[in-house]
Amino acid sequence: MSSALAFDLGASSGRAILGRLQDGKIVTEELHRFPNDPVQVGDRLQWDLLRLYHEIKQGLLKAKHAGVEPASIGIDSWAVDYGLLARDGSLLGNPNHYRDRASEGMMEKLGEEIGEAEIFARTGIQFLPFNTIYQLTAQSRAGSPLLESASHLLMIPDLLRYFLTGERYHEFSNATTTQLYNPVSEQWDGALLGHIGVSETLFSPVLKPGAQAGVVQPSVREELGIGPIPVYAVAEHDTASAVVAVPALERSFAYLSCGTWSLLGTEIERPVITDEARALNFTNEGGFGDTYRLLKNIMGLWILQESRRAWERESKSFTFPELVQQAGEAPAFAAFIDPDDPSFMAPGDMPARIRQYCERTGQEAPQTPGAIVRCILESLALKYRYVLELTERLSGQRFGGLHMVGGGIHNTLLCQWTADAIGKPVWAGPSEGSAIGNLAVQWIARGDFKDIWEARSVIRDSFPVTTYEPGAGQAWEAAYEQFSRVTGLDR
Protein backbone atom coordinates (compact mmCIF):
# COMPACT_ATOMS: atom_id res chain seq x y z
CA MET A 1 0.00 0.00 0.00
CA SER A 2 1.37 3.40 -1.02
CA SER A 3 0.99 5.75 1.94
CA ALA A 4 1.15 9.54 2.23
CA LEU A 5 0.53 11.95 5.09
CA ALA A 6 -1.41 15.19 4.56
CA PHE A 7 -1.41 18.04 7.05
CA ASP A 8 -4.45 20.17 6.23
CA LEU A 9 -4.68 23.41 8.22
CA GLY A 10 -7.86 25.44 8.13
CA ALA A 11 -8.65 28.76 9.74
CA SER A 12 -10.29 27.07 12.75
CA SER A 13 -8.77 23.57 12.95
CA GLY A 14 -6.07 21.31 11.55
CA ARG A 15 -5.80 17.61 10.87
CA ALA A 16 -3.28 14.95 9.96
CA ILE A 17 -4.77 12.53 7.42
CA LEU A 18 -2.99 9.32 6.50
CA GLY A 19 -3.84 8.14 2.99
CA ARG A 20 -3.29 4.70 1.49
CA LEU A 21 -3.89 3.36 -2.01
CA GLN A 22 -5.57 0.01 -1.57
CA ASP A 23 -7.27 -2.14 -4.24
CA GLY A 24 -7.56 0.81 -6.62
CA LYS A 25 -9.16 3.11 -4.05
CA ILE A 26 -8.08 5.74 -1.56
CA VAL A 27 -8.45 4.86 2.10
CA THR A 28 -7.98 7.68 4.62
CA GLU A 29 -7.52 7.71 8.36
CA GLU A 30 -7.57 10.76 10.59
CA LEU A 31 -4.57 10.39 12.89
CA HIS A 32 -4.74 13.73 14.64
CA ARG A 33 -7.11 16.69 14.83
CA PHE A 34 -6.43 19.91 16.71
CA PRO A 35 -7.89 23.41 17.12
CA ASN A 36 -6.35 26.40 15.39
CA ASP A 37 -7.45 29.36 17.44
CA PRO A 38 -6.09 32.84 16.76
CA VAL A 39 -4.80 34.73 19.79
CA GLN A 40 -5.64 38.34 20.62
CA VAL A 41 -2.55 40.06 22.05
CA GLY A 42 -3.30 43.69 22.85
CA ASP A 43 -4.69 45.14 19.64
CA ARG A 44 -3.11 42.40 17.46
CA LEU A 45 -4.80 39.21 16.28
CA GLN A 46 -2.14 36.59 15.61
CA TRP A 47 -1.57 32.93 14.80
CA ASP A 48 0.16 30.63 17.30
CA LEU A 49 2.45 29.18 14.65
CA LEU A 50 4.75 27.23 16.95
CA ARG A 51 1.72 25.48 18.41
CA LEU A 52 0.76 24.45 14.87
CA TYR A 53 4.26 23.11 14.30
CA HIS A 54 4.00 21.19 17.58
CA GLU A 55 0.73 19.65 16.36
CA ILE A 56 2.39 18.62 13.08
CA LYS A 57 5.05 16.80 15.08
CA GLN A 58 2.30 15.13 17.13
CA GLY A 59 0.76 13.92 13.88
CA LEU A 60 4.09 12.43 12.83
CA LEU A 61 4.42 10.73 16.22
CA LYS A 62 0.91 9.29 15.96
CA ALA A 63 1.78 7.84 12.56
CA LYS A 64 4.90 6.31 14.08
CA HIS A 65 2.96 4.86 17.02
CA ALA A 66 0.49 3.36 14.55
CA GLY A 67 3.41 1.54 12.96
CA VAL A 68 3.42 3.64 9.79
CA GLU A 69 6.18 5.73 8.26
CA PRO A 70 4.53 7.54 5.35
CA ALA A 71 6.36 7.57 2.03
CA SER A 72 5.88 11.35 1.80
CA ILE A 73 4.43 14.40 3.55
CA GLY A 74 2.53 17.46 2.29
CA ILE A 75 1.16 20.57 4.04
CA ASP A 76 -1.66 22.87 2.91
CA SER A 77 -3.24 25.83 4.68
CA TRP A 78 -5.18 29.04 4.22
CA ALA A 79 -3.64 31.77 2.07
CA VAL A 80 -2.21 35.32 2.35
CA ASP A 81 -0.67 35.16 5.86
CA TYR A 82 3.08 34.94 6.35
CA GLY A 83 5.92 34.89 8.85
CA LEU A 84 9.31 36.58 8.85
CA LEU A 85 12.64 34.90 9.53
CA ALA A 86 15.79 36.43 10.98
CA ARG A 87 19.19 35.91 9.40
CA ASP A 88 19.79 32.95 11.71
CA GLY A 89 16.57 31.32 10.51
CA SER A 90 14.53 31.96 13.68
CA LEU A 91 10.94 33.18 13.55
CA LEU A 92 10.51 36.93 14.13
CA GLY A 93 7.24 37.03 16.06
CA ASN A 94 3.90 35.37 15.52
CA PRO A 95 2.30 35.92 12.09
CA ASN A 96 -0.64 38.30 12.01
CA HIS A 97 -4.10 36.88 11.32
CA TYR A 98 -5.72 38.06 8.09
CA ARG A 99 -8.63 39.47 10.14
CA ASP A 100 -6.23 41.69 12.11
CA ARG A 101 -7.00 45.37 11.56
CA ALA A 102 -3.42 46.52 10.91
CA SER A 103 -3.85 46.59 7.14
CA GLU A 104 -7.12 48.55 7.12
CA GLY A 105 -7.09 51.29 4.48
CA MET A 106 -4.01 49.99 2.67
CA MET A 107 -5.98 48.52 -0.25
CA GLU A 108 -7.58 51.88 -0.94
CA LYS A 109 -4.27 53.75 -0.61
CA LEU A 110 -2.41 51.49 -3.02
CA GLY A 111 -5.36 51.62 -5.41
CA GLU A 112 -5.01 55.40 -5.49
CA GLU A 113 -1.19 55.39 -5.74
CA ILE A 114 -0.68 52.66 -8.32
CA GLY A 115 -4.16 52.23 -9.79
CA GLU A 116 -6.34 49.14 -9.45
CA ALA A 117 -6.09 48.45 -13.17
CA GLU A 118 -2.28 48.31 -12.94
CA ILE A 119 -2.27 46.07 -9.87
CA PHE A 120 -4.75 43.67 -11.47
CA ALA A 121 -2.87 43.64 -14.78
CA ARG A 122 0.30 42.64 -12.91
CA THR A 123 -1.27 39.97 -10.67
CA GLY A 124 -4.79 38.99 -11.80
CA ILE A 125 -5.78 38.76 -8.13
CA GLN A 126 -9.01 39.81 -6.47
CA PHE A 127 -8.93 42.94 -4.29
CA LEU A 128 -9.33 41.88 -0.66
CA PRO A 129 -8.18 44.12 2.21
CA PHE A 130 -6.17 41.34 3.87
CA ASN A 131 -4.09 40.28 0.84
CA THR A 132 -0.39 39.90 1.59
CA ILE A 133 0.48 43.03 -0.38
CA TYR A 134 -1.63 45.16 1.98
CA GLN A 135 -0.36 43.46 5.14
CA LEU A 136 3.22 44.09 3.99
CA THR A 137 2.43 47.68 3.03
CA ALA A 138 1.08 48.31 6.53
CA GLN A 139 4.24 46.86 8.11
CA SER A 140 6.54 48.76 5.78
CA ARG A 141 4.86 52.13 6.29
CA ALA A 142 4.70 51.65 10.04
CA GLY A 143 8.45 51.08 10.08
CA SER A 144 8.05 47.62 11.55
CA PRO A 145 11.28 46.54 13.30
CA LEU A 146 10.41 42.93 12.46
CA LEU A 147 10.27 43.70 8.74
CA GLU A 148 13.48 45.72 8.94
CA SER A 149 15.24 42.79 10.63
CA ALA A 150 13.84 40.10 8.36
CA SER A 151 16.00 38.03 6.04
CA HIS A 152 13.22 35.88 4.55
CA LEU A 153 9.43 35.87 4.22
CA LEU A 154 7.53 32.60 3.98
CA MET A 155 3.82 31.86 3.72
CA ILE A 156 2.24 29.71 6.45
CA PRO A 157 2.69 26.28 4.81
CA ASP A 158 6.13 27.35 3.54
CA LEU A 159 7.12 28.16 7.13
CA LEU A 160 5.93 24.86 8.54
CA ARG A 161 7.65 22.99 5.71
CA TYR A 162 10.81 24.98 6.43
CA PHE A 163 10.70 23.94 10.10
CA LEU A 164 10.53 20.29 8.97
CA THR A 165 13.17 20.41 6.24
CA GLY A 166 15.36 23.47 6.75
CA GLU A 167 14.71 24.39 3.09
CA ARG A 168 13.18 27.74 2.11
CA TYR A 169 10.81 27.66 -0.87
CA HIS A 170 7.53 29.25 -1.85
CA GLU A 171 4.82 27.21 -3.54
CA PHE A 172 3.02 28.45 -6.65
CA SER A 173 -0.67 28.25 -5.64
CA ASN A 174 -0.08 30.11 -2.39
CA ALA A 175 2.41 32.57 -3.91
CA THR A 176 -0.21 33.80 -6.37
CA THR A 177 -2.62 34.74 -3.55
CA THR A 178 -0.18 37.38 -2.24
CA GLN A 179 -1.08 39.83 -5.05
CA LEU A 180 2.68 40.19 -5.49
CA TYR A 181 3.31 37.38 -8.00
CA ASN A 182 3.13 38.15 -11.72
CA PRO A 183 1.56 35.24 -13.65
CA VAL A 184 2.78 36.61 -16.99
CA SER A 185 6.46 36.86 -16.06
CA GLU A 186 6.08 33.94 -13.61
CA GLN A 187 8.08 35.67 -10.89
CA TRP A 188 7.69 38.05 -7.98
CA ASP A 189 6.68 41.48 -9.23
CA GLY A 190 9.60 43.79 -8.52
CA ALA A 191 7.69 46.95 -9.40
CA LEU A 192 4.98 46.30 -6.82
CA LEU A 193 7.51 45.27 -4.18
CA GLY A 194 9.56 48.37 -4.90
CA HIS A 195 6.53 50.62 -4.52
CA ILE A 196 5.63 49.24 -1.09
CA GLY A 197 9.25 49.35 0.05
CA VAL A 198 9.86 45.63 0.44
CA SER A 199 13.00 43.97 -0.89
CA GLU A 200 12.75 41.14 -3.40
CA THR A 201 15.52 39.41 -1.45
CA LEU A 202 12.94 38.45 1.19
CA PHE A 203 11.38 36.03 -1.30
CA SER A 204 12.60 32.54 -2.16
CA PRO A 205 12.25 30.46 -5.36
CA VAL A 206 8.73 29.33 -6.26
CA LEU A 207 8.06 25.61 -6.68
CA LYS A 208 5.18 24.20 -8.70
CA PRO A 209 2.82 21.80 -6.90
CA GLY A 210 4.29 18.31 -6.90
CA ALA A 211 7.92 19.35 -6.57
CA GLN A 212 9.94 17.76 -3.81
CA ALA A 213 10.96 20.46 -1.32
CA GLY A 214 13.39 18.50 0.83
CA VAL A 215 13.32 15.74 3.42
CA VAL A 216 12.68 15.77 7.16
CA GLN A 217 15.89 17.27 8.57
CA PRO A 218 18.22 15.46 11.02
CA SER A 219 17.16 17.42 14.15
CA VAL A 220 13.52 16.47 13.62
CA ARG A 221 14.41 12.88 12.80
CA GLU A 222 16.39 12.59 16.02
CA GLU A 223 13.65 14.22 18.11
CA LEU A 224 10.81 12.06 16.76
CA GLY A 225 12.70 8.90 15.89
CA ILE A 226 11.64 8.87 12.24
CA GLY A 227 13.46 8.60 8.93
CA PRO A 228 14.31 11.10 6.16
CA ILE A 229 10.77 11.28 4.80
CA PRO A 230 10.43 13.31 1.55
CA VAL A 231 8.37 16.50 1.91
CA TYR A 232 6.52 17.73 -1.18
CA ALA A 233 5.24 21.15 -2.09
CA VAL A 234 1.67 20.11 -2.77
CA ALA A 235 -1.01 22.58 -3.91
CA GLU A 236 -0.42 24.38 -0.63
CA HIS A 237 -3.31 26.82 -0.72
CA ASP A 238 -6.05 24.65 0.76
CA THR A 239 -8.50 25.70 -1.93
CA ALA A 240 -6.06 24.61 -4.63
CA SER A 241 -5.84 21.22 -2.94
CA ALA A 242 -9.63 21.07 -2.68
CA VAL A 243 -9.95 21.72 -6.41
CA VAL A 244 -7.55 18.85 -7.13
CA ALA A 245 -10.01 16.63 -5.22
CA VAL A 246 -13.12 17.71 -7.16
CA PRO A 247 -14.39 14.36 -8.53
CA ALA A 248 -15.23 15.79 -11.94
CA LEU A 249 -15.23 13.57 -15.01
CA GLU A 250 -15.83 16.43 -17.44
CA ARG A 251 -13.03 18.86 -18.32
CA SER A 252 -15.31 21.88 -17.91
CA PHE A 253 -16.72 22.07 -14.39
CA ALA A 254 -17.61 24.53 -11.65
CA TYR A 255 -16.73 23.99 -8.01
CA LEU A 256 -17.61 25.42 -4.63
CA SER A 257 -15.14 24.84 -1.82
CA CYS A 258 -17.34 25.45 1.19
CA GLY A 259 -16.16 26.02 4.76
CA THR A 260 -15.26 29.08 6.83
CA TRP A 261 -14.80 30.69 3.42
CA SER A 262 -16.70 29.81 0.26
CA LEU A 263 -14.73 29.86 -2.98
CA LEU A 264 -16.64 29.37 -6.22
CA GLY A 265 -15.13 29.16 -9.66
CA THR A 266 -13.70 26.97 -12.39
CA GLU A 267 -10.35 25.61 -13.57
CA ILE A 268 -8.76 27.32 -16.58
CA GLU A 269 -5.50 27.10 -18.52
CA ARG A 270 -4.67 30.82 -18.60
CA PRO A 271 -5.63 33.64 -16.24
CA VAL A 272 -8.50 35.93 -17.24
CA ILE A 273 -6.93 39.36 -16.73
CA THR A 274 -9.54 41.64 -18.25
CA ASP A 275 -11.26 44.85 -17.22
CA GLU A 276 -14.49 42.92 -16.72
CA ALA A 277 -12.82 40.38 -14.40
CA ARG A 278 -11.33 43.26 -12.41
CA ALA A 279 -14.64 45.10 -12.22
CA LEU A 280 -16.35 41.94 -10.96
CA ASN A 281 -13.47 41.41 -8.48
CA PHE A 282 -12.65 37.88 -9.60
CA THR A 283 -9.29 36.29 -8.95
CA ASN A 284 -6.87 34.08 -10.87
CA GLU A 285 -5.07 31.89 -8.36
CA GLY A 286 -2.54 29.23 -9.26
CA GLY A 287 -3.57 25.59 -9.43
CA PHE A 288 -2.05 22.20 -10.01
CA GLY A 289 -0.63 21.25 -13.39
CA ASP A 290 -0.05 24.78 -14.72
CA THR A 291 -3.72 25.68 -14.33
CA TYR A 292 -5.41 28.69 -12.78
CA ARG A 293 -8.47 28.91 -10.60
CA LEU A 294 -10.82 31.62 -11.86
CA LEU A 295 -12.91 32.18 -8.77
CA LYS A 296 -14.46 34.57 -6.32
CA ASN A 297 -14.15 34.52 -2.54
CA ILE A 298 -17.45 34.59 -0.65
CA MET A 299 -17.59 35.12 3.10
CA GLY A 300 -18.96 31.62 3.73
CA LEU A 301 -19.92 29.86 6.95
CA TRP A 302 -17.78 32.28 8.96
CA ILE A 303 -20.96 34.32 9.52
CA LEU A 304 -22.75 31.29 10.99
CA GLN A 305 -19.72 30.28 13.08
CA GLU A 306 -19.34 33.76 14.50
CA SER A 307 -23.10 33.99 15.20
CA ARG A 308 -22.88 30.78 17.21
CA ARG A 309 -19.98 32.21 19.21
CA ALA A 310 -22.03 35.33 19.93
CA TRP A 311 -24.91 33.23 21.27
CA GLU A 312 -22.48 31.22 23.39
CA ARG A 313 -21.29 34.46 24.99
CA GLU A 314 -24.94 35.02 25.96
CA SER A 315 -25.06 31.51 27.48
CA LYS A 316 -27.20 30.25 24.60
CA SER A 317 -25.45 27.12 23.45
CA PHE A 318 -26.49 25.50 20.17
CA THR A 319 -24.89 22.76 18.11
CA PHE A 320 -24.68 23.39 14.37
CA PRO A 321 -27.27 20.64 13.66
CA GLU A 322 -29.65 22.32 16.13
CA LEU A 323 -29.22 25.67 14.39
CA VAL A 324 -29.77 24.11 10.96
CA GLN A 325 -32.94 22.43 12.24
CA GLN A 326 -34.24 25.74 13.61
CA ALA A 327 -33.43 27.40 10.28
CA GLY A 328 -35.48 24.79 8.43
CA GLU A 329 -38.46 25.59 10.66
CA ALA A 330 -38.20 29.39 10.24
CA PRO A 331 -40.20 31.30 7.58
CA ALA A 332 -38.64 31.24 4.12
CA PHE A 333 -37.22 34.31 2.36
CA ALA A 334 -37.99 36.69 5.22
CA ALA A 335 -34.76 38.71 4.93
CA PHE A 336 -31.48 38.70 2.99
CA ILE A 337 -27.91 39.91 3.46
CA ASP A 338 -24.96 40.22 1.13
CA PRO A 339 -22.51 37.83 2.83
CA ASP A 340 -19.62 39.92 1.49
CA ASP A 341 -20.71 43.18 3.09
CA PRO A 342 -17.65 44.60 4.94
CA SER A 343 -19.60 44.65 8.22
CA PHE A 344 -19.34 40.84 8.37
CA MET A 345 -15.54 40.66 8.02
CA ALA A 346 -14.25 41.19 11.56
CA PRO A 347 -15.05 39.02 14.60
CA GLY A 348 -17.88 40.29 16.76
CA ASP A 349 -21.63 40.22 17.39
CA MET A 350 -22.75 38.86 14.03
CA PRO A 351 -26.49 38.53 14.88
CA ALA A 352 -26.55 42.23 15.78
CA ARG A 353 -24.77 43.12 12.52
CA ILE A 354 -27.25 41.05 10.51
CA ARG A 355 -30.16 42.88 12.15
CA GLN A 356 -28.47 46.23 11.47
CA TYR A 357 -27.91 45.28 7.81
CA CYS A 358 -31.56 44.34 7.41
CA GLU A 359 -32.78 47.55 9.04
CA ARG A 360 -30.38 49.58 6.88
CA THR A 361 -31.79 47.96 3.72
CA GLY A 362 -35.46 48.40 4.67
CA GLN A 363 -36.13 44.81 5.72
CA GLU A 364 -37.70 43.41 8.86
CA ALA A 365 -34.77 42.17 10.91
CA PRO A 366 -34.73 38.50 11.96
CA GLN A 367 -34.80 38.03 15.74
CA THR A 368 -34.61 34.36 16.63
CA PRO A 369 -31.53 32.17 16.07
CA GLY A 370 -33.49 30.05 13.57
CA ALA A 371 -34.55 33.09 11.53
CA ILE A 372 -31.01 34.51 11.57
CA VAL A 373 -29.47 31.21 10.43
CA ARG A 374 -32.10 30.87 7.70
CA CYS A 375 -31.22 34.38 6.52
CA ILE A 376 -27.51 33.43 6.41
CA LEU A 377 -27.97 30.15 4.54
CA GLU A 378 -30.51 31.42 2.01
CA SER A 379 -28.33 34.46 1.33
CA LEU A 380 -25.28 32.25 0.79
CA ALA A 381 -27.18 30.00 -1.64
CA LEU A 382 -28.38 33.01 -3.62
CA LYS A 383 -24.91 34.58 -3.65
CA TYR A 384 -23.59 31.28 -5.02
CA ARG A 385 -26.02 31.61 -7.93
CA TYR A 386 -24.87 35.16 -8.60
CA VAL A 387 -21.18 34.16 -8.65
CA LEU A 388 -21.80 30.99 -10.68
CA GLU A 389 -23.48 33.02 -13.43
CA LEU A 390 -20.58 35.49 -13.43
CA THR A 391 -18.12 32.59 -13.64
CA GLU A 392 -19.91 31.28 -16.72
CA ARG A 393 -19.78 34.74 -18.26
CA LEU A 394 -16.07 35.31 -17.64
CA SER A 395 -14.94 31.80 -18.60
CA GLY A 396 -17.22 31.45 -21.63
CA GLN A 397 -18.39 28.08 -20.28
CA ARG A 398 -21.77 26.64 -19.30
CA PHE A 399 -21.94 24.27 -16.37
CA GLY A 400 -24.48 21.49 -15.92
CA GLY A 401 -24.23 21.68 -12.15
CA LEU A 402 -21.97 22.55 -9.25
CA HIS A 403 -19.41 20.33 -7.49
CA MET A 404 -19.42 21.15 -3.78
CA VAL A 405 -16.51 20.02 -1.58
CA GLY A 406 -15.34 20.75 1.95
CA GLY A 407 -16.82 20.62 5.42
CA GLY A 408 -19.80 22.73 4.39
CA ILE A 409 -21.34 19.74 2.61
CA HIS A 410 -22.34 18.37 6.04
CA ASN A 411 -24.91 21.19 6.06
CA THR A 412 -27.48 19.37 3.93
CA LEU A 413 -29.88 22.32 4.07
CA LEU A 414 -27.26 24.57 2.45
CA CYS A 415 -26.56 21.94 -0.22
CA GLN A 416 -30.25 21.60 -1.09
CA TRP A 417 -30.89 25.33 -1.06
CA THR A 418 -27.85 25.87 -3.30
CA ALA A 419 -29.30 23.42 -5.83
CA ASP A 420 -32.66 25.21 -5.57
CA ALA A 421 -31.05 28.63 -5.98
CA ILE A 422 -28.92 27.77 -9.04
CA GLY A 423 -31.64 25.59 -10.62
CA LYS A 424 -29.06 22.86 -11.31
CA PRO A 425 -27.83 19.74 -9.53
CA VAL A 426 -25.30 20.01 -6.73
CA TRP A 427 -22.84 17.11 -6.36
CA ALA A 428 -21.58 17.18 -2.77
CA GLY A 429 -18.39 15.34 -1.82
CA PRO A 430 -15.80 14.71 -0.62
CA SER A 431 -15.94 16.61 2.67
CA GLU A 432 -12.18 16.43 3.35
CA GLY A 433 -11.42 17.84 -0.09
CA SER A 434 -8.25 19.75 0.82
CA ALA A 435 -6.62 16.79 2.58
CA ILE A 436 -7.54 14.40 -0.25
CA GLY A 437 -6.20 16.80 -2.87
CA ASN A 438 -3.02 17.16 -0.82
CA LEU A 439 -2.60 13.35 -0.86
CA ALA A 440 -3.42 13.15 -4.57
CA VAL A 441 -0.66 15.62 -5.52
CA GLN A 442 1.85 13.54 -3.55
CA TRP A 443 0.76 10.38 -5.38
CA ILE A 444 0.89 12.08 -8.78
CA ALA A 445 4.38 13.39 -8.00
CA ARG A 446 5.51 9.93 -6.98
CA GLY A 447 4.00 8.24 -10.04
CA ASP A 448 1.17 6.38 -8.34
CA PHE A 449 -1.29 8.29 -10.56
CA LYS A 450 -0.36 9.23 -14.10
CA ASP A 451 -2.19 12.57 -13.95
CA ILE A 452 -4.86 14.59 -12.19
CA TRP A 453 -7.68 13.00 -14.18
CA GLU A 454 -6.76 9.51 -13.04
CA ALA A 455 -6.60 10.88 -9.49
CA ARG A 456 -10.07 12.46 -9.81
CA SER A 457 -11.51 9.24 -11.19
CA VAL A 458 -10.13 7.28 -8.22
CA ILE A 459 -11.40 9.95 -5.80
CA ARG A 460 -14.88 9.64 -7.30
CA ASP A 461 -14.79 5.87 -6.81
CA SER A 462 -13.42 6.16 -3.26
CA PHE A 463 -15.69 8.70 -1.57
CA PRO A 464 -19.47 9.14 -1.57
CA VAL A 465 -20.97 11.93 -3.64
CA THR A 466 -24.52 13.02 -2.82
CA THR A 467 -26.64 14.56 -5.57
CA TYR A 468 -29.10 17.33 -4.69
CA GLU A 469 -31.67 18.01 -7.40
CA PRO A 470 -33.24 21.48 -7.64
CA GLY A 471 -36.85 22.11 -6.72
CA ALA A 472 -39.32 24.92 -5.98
CA GLY A 473 -37.99 26.90 -8.94
CA GLN A 474 -40.51 29.75 -9.05
CA ALA A 475 -40.15 30.56 -5.36
CA TRP A 476 -36.37 30.70 -5.63
CA GLU A 477 -36.54 32.83 -8.80
CA ALA A 478 -38.66 35.37 -6.94
CA ALA A 479 -36.29 35.18 -3.96
CA TYR A 480 -33.29 35.82 -6.23
CA GLU A 481 -34.91 38.95 -7.62
CA GLN A 482 -35.61 40.19 -4.09
CA PHE A 483 -32.09 39.27 -2.90
CA SER A 484 -30.48 41.08 -5.86
CA ARG A 485 -32.56 44.19 -5.24
CA VAL A 486 -32.00 44.31 -1.47
CA THR A 487 -28.23 43.76 -1.72
CA GLY A 488 -27.76 46.09 -4.70
CA LEU A 489 -26.24 43.32 -6.82
CA ASP A 490 -28.73 44.07 -9.59
CA ARG A 491 -27.09 47.43 -10.24
Automatic annotation (TrEMBL):
InterPro entries, alphabetized: ATPase_NBD, FGGY_C, FGGY_N, Rhamnulokinase
Keyword Transmembrane helix recorded: no
A Pfam family assignment: FGGY_N
Carbohydrate kinase FGGY N-terminal domain location: 4-244
Entry annotated with the keyword ATP-binding: yes
Every Carbohydrate kinase FGGY C-terminal domain range: 254-445
GO cellular component terms listed in the entry, alphabetical order: cytosol
Superkingdom, taxonomy of origin: Bacteria
GO molecular function terms listed in the Swiss-Prot or TrEMBL record: ATP binding; glycerol kinase activity; rhamnulokinase activity
Family in the record: Belongs to the FGGY kinase family.
Protein name: Rhamnulokinase
Species in which this protein is naturally found: Paenibacillus methanolicus
Phylogenetic lineage: Bacteria, Bacillati, Bacillota, Bacilli, Bacillales
